[in-house]
Amino acid sequence: MLPAQSLDSLLVSKIELHRYDEAKELVEKGANVNTIQHFQTPLTAVVNRMWDLSDTVFYSWLLSKGAAINFSPGGYTGTSMYAAASSQTLGSRAQIVRFLIRNGAKVNVDEGQPEPIKGALTYNCWDVISVLMDNGAKLPSYALAKAMAEMRYSKYKDAQGALTEYGKLVEKLVNDSLQLRGRHELFTPLGHAIKNGNLEITTMLLQKGAPVDKVEGPGGWSSVMLASYKQVAEKEPADRLAIIQLLVQKGANAKQDSKLEYQQKLTHHPCPVIPKGSNALDAAILSGAPQPVIDYLKTLGVEQVTSKK
C-alpha cells in the first residue's frame, strides 16, 4: 500500500487530469481531502480546472468526505472561492461562484489571504464581481476606477442598447460615493472616463456626484487639462470637445496649472513633455489636440504659459 503522502500527491494529480473515479478510490484508501500539494488543495484543484457545472458533482463529493471549502493552501492561490472568482478560463464562472456560496464558501476571507473580489477585479470578471457584491463582498475603494480603466476593452451596452455585464456592474458601483473618489493607476473613475473619451460615462459620473476637478494622475492635472491632452498612439475620441465643454459647464477650472512635469511613457512613440505649471491650453497645443479644442480653450480666456517659462 502506498504511504499517505504518496496517496495525497496522487489525489491532486488525478484531479488535475479529471480522473475523478480514480481520485475517489484514492480517498477511500486514505488520501487526505485537505492535503496541500504545490499550493493546491483537492478542492482548489477541481475549481482551477472547471469549465462548467458538471465538475461540481465531484466537488460536492469531496465536501461530503470532509473537504474544507474555506481552507486556503496559502501563497497566491487562496480558497476555492478565490480560484473561481479570479479564473480566466471558467465558462460558467458566475454560476460556479453561486454554487460555492450555496455550499458555504465565504466571499470575504481572513486578513492576509487573497481576496476573491480583488482577484475578480484583476481579471475583469464583471459577472463574478456582481455576484460577490450581491452576497456581501467588501469592495476595495478602487473597484470603479479599475472598471473605468478597462472601458476601452469592455462594452457598456450591447448592439441592442441593453446593459452588458460590465455595464450592470458600473451601474451598481456608481451609487457608492466612496467609489467615485477611489483611484486605480493614479486616476479616479472620472479621470479614466475622460482619458477614454467617453462622453456618456463622463456625464453619468458627474450626475452621480463625481468631483469635477478630482482626476489625479501622474501630473496632478485638472479634468479640463486631462481632456485637452491628446493621448499618443490613441484614436482621437469624437467627443473630446463635448467632454471639455461639459466639464466647464459643471464648474471645472480650465485655467488650473499642473503640479508636476508629465510625459506619456510609450516605447515606440515619441511623447511630448508637458512641463510643470502647464495648463489645459499648453497640454492641447503640445500634444497636438484638434484645433477646435485649442480655439475653445482660448475663448475661455486660457493663455499658453509654457512659452513664458
Please sum up the structure shown.
The chain has 309 residues and is mostly helical.
Characterise this structure.
By secondary structure, the protein is mainly alpha-helical. It has a domain at 1-138: Serine Threonine Protein Phosphatase 5, Tetratricopeptide repeat. It has helices spanning 4-16, 20-28, 42-48, 56-64, 80-85, 93-102, 116-122, 126-134, 143-149, 165-173, 189-195, 199-207, 223-228, 240-249, 280-287, 291-299; strands at 262-263, 273-274. A two-stranded antiparallel sheet has the order 1-2. Helix 7 runs antiparallel to helix 8 and helix 8 crosses helix 10 (165-173). The longest helix has 13 residues, at 4-16. The chain is elongated.
CATH architectural type of the domain at 1-138: Alpha Horseshoe
Poorly predicted segments: none
Number of strands: 2
Query: Going by CATH, what is the homologous superfamily of the domain at 1-138?
Result: Ankyrin repeat-containing domain
Radius of gyration from the CA trace?
25 Å
Helical content (DSSP H or I, runs of 4+): 40-55%
CATH class of the domain at 1-138: Mainly Alpha
Strand order in the largest sheet? 1-2
Shape type: elongated
- Strand content is under 5%
For this structure, the quaternary state is single chain
Distance between the termini: 82 Å
Q: Average pLDDT across residues?
A: 89
Annotated CATH topology of the domain at 1-138: Serine Threonine Protein Phosphatase 5, Tetratricopeptide repeat
Report the structural category.
mainly alpha
SSE arrangement, N to C = HHHHHHHHHHHHHHEEHH
- State the major sheet: 2 strands, antiparallel
Number of helices: 16
